[in-house]
Description:
Elements: H1 2-16, E1 23-29, E2 39-41, E3 45-48, E4 53-57, E5 63-67, E6 70-73, H2 84-95, E7 121-122, E8 127-131, E9 138-140, E10 148-154, E11 160-165, E12 171-173, E13 185-190, E14 197-203, H3 211-220, H4 224-235
Parallel strand pairs: 7-9, 8-14
Antiparallel strand pairs: 1-2, 1-4, 3-6, 4-5, 9-12, 10-11, 10-13, 13-14
Helix pairs in contact: 2-3, 3-4
Amino acid sequence: MIRFVMCLVLAALVWAVPAAAADIVVVASNVPAYKAGQVIDSAAMLDLAAGQKLTFIAGNGKSVTRAGPYKGPVWDTTPPATDKKFTDALASLAAGQGKGGQTLGAVRGAQKGEPADPWVVDVGRGGDQCVAPGAAPQLWRASADKPAVLHLAGAKEEGRTQADWPAGAATLPWPAEVKLADRAVYMARLDGAPTARRLVLHLTSDGLLSDAHRAVWMAEMGCALQARILLWGASGASN
Length: 239
């Protein structure tokens, strides 16, 4: 009988032990005490007033948003185990650190002169750009009020072409005549532009866990602008 009672007590203690906490990242905040890029304990308690809002992402890429009035834990389900490499990289991206960084929590999606879609290739901006897995990208231009002619050429054996870009169209399908290759260099120029833009394309792996993981990978490839826009959408953050 004593043994049976002890077993019941031990079982009760096991059930009473709270789930292990994990590090999670603040990716958007209008609360002064919490900054985008801050890493906190998932077991932390919040006391948010009306109008206050926080968005967090955990180590598996899942997000949670808490909007005031709210009193309670940050994460009310068992969080995944901390992935330190991922959370550190995510924190840097959300804080706007590194090449081309801008604080995620201080922006509201794409800014003026930027595409809203994180996966388009901006022909007006040189440098590293990332391509979504499994599909040819759409080319994008900031000003679409006039027709244009696009000249696109690979630096090696990817091919070259020119294509009419209709007035009113901000996007244009990637030309079939030019082969897509990972880390290949392309030169893109619209008629009237003084110089061609040198683009380096990175083909994104389809084995990444979530959009947050894709955003971290994109930032590592130098696609910081695209990563920021994708992460904003992945976090579900909005006013």
